[in-house]
Hints:
Structural class: mainly beta
Order of helices and strands: HEEEEEEEE
Oligomer: single chain
Amino acid sequence: MDIWEDWLELVKKGNFTIQICIDCNKSQFYPRSFCQFCNGKNLELVSYKDQAHIYSFTEILRSPNPEKFTPPYFIGLVEIDNAIKVICQLNLNKDEISIGKPVKFKELTNDGIIIFH
Length: 117
């Protein structure tokens, strides 16, 4: 298997992982064959520590694809372990969403959409 397939297998089981470089101890997402910081190749996939929160978000009122996305919905930038930011769909109601709100990984859809709630 390759790095991406390994990551997909873990995520499909509900385990959202990030990549840690053993050489420099930095985190990165999406999985790669090298460290974006030190160019090292000693990497491993690890579960994030459930420390994810909404860093930024926007409400989408007009869908680019109404068959897949029913407006209104939220797209967010979620910060994981105070190091990595991931663009995702936020499965929250308007009155539940706010900057800094803790969120958890929910699923990766068949269309490749990462969802946090």
